[in-house]
Amino acid sequence: MTSPTDTDAAARLARRYPPSRTPRWLWVAIAVTLAVVGGGWMIWAALHGANPAVSAKIVSFSVTSDQTVDVHVTTQRPDPSRPGVCTVIVQAESYDTVGQYPIELAPGTETLEDHHVTVRTFKRGTSASIRSCEAR
User: Fold this and answer.
1) How many angstroms from the chain centroid is the CA of residue 98?
2) 131, 133, 123, 105: which is closest to 69 by C-alpha?
3) Which CATH architecture does the domain made up of 55-135 adopt?
4) Can you tell me the mean pLDDT for 102-125?
5) What local confidence, expressed as pLDDT, does residue 1 receive?
6) Average pLDDT over all residues of the chain
7) What digits encode the pLDDT tens for the residues 73-107?
8) What's the per-residue H, E or C state across 2-26?
9) Would you state the pLDDT for residue 63?
10) Residues paired with 115 in a beta bridge
11) What is the DSSP string of 101-117?
């Protein structure tokens, strides 16, 4: 019996694993392009989403009955001269939305505003949250 030489082994490996048809520089160019586009989008998204025109947060809420929930909301607008709307929702224990209330924000002079609202529900609510805030 004869043992295979190094050249025989190399030839067998070359036949089994042929070189790629796509040049390496093309893969590098594609990766760099994707990194630049993805990085640019990530920076834009971070800067755009970091300073919303209107934002709100629930300070507290109190379930007063099976049909009402009192909610204390603080809204913030960097430009208080722009009107906006924030929607408060109330959910039941089953996570169903059982009530909602749009807080209309008229143009004003204060960047921070407190709002006390009573949300009517068709079933007992157990939590309150902000669904959305939009500038108009």
Assistant:
1) 24
2) 123
3) Sandwich (2.60)
4) 95
5) 46
6) 92
7) 999 999 999 999 999 999 999 999 999 999 999 99
8) CCCCHHHHHHHHHHHCCCCCCCHHH
9) 96
10) 73
11) EEEEE-S-S-SEEEEEE
Tell which wins on pLDDT, 62 or 18: 62
Q: Is 63 exposed, middle or buried (0-12, 13-18, 19+ CB in 10 A)?
A: middle
Q: How far is CA 118 from CA 42, 47, 52, 76, 103, in A?
A: 39, 35, 26, 20, 11
Please report which residue ranges of 17-130 form alpha helices under DSSP H: 24-50
Strands 84-91 vs 127-135: parallel, antiparallel or unpaired: antiparallel
Strand partners, 116: 72
Rounded Cα–Cα distance for residues 125 and 29 (Å): 55
Asked if residue 135 has pLDDT above 80, the reply is yes
State phi, psi for 50 to the nearest 5 degrees: -75, -25
What is the percentage of the chain residues whose pLDDT exceeds 70?
A: 97
Q: Could you give the CA distance from residue 136 to residue 120 in angstroms, rounded to a whole number?
A: 25
Residue range(s) in the chain whose domain bears CATH number 2.60.40: 55-135
Tokens describing residue 93:
């224990």
Q: Which two tokens stand for residue 6?
A: 């190094």
58-71: average pLDDT: 96
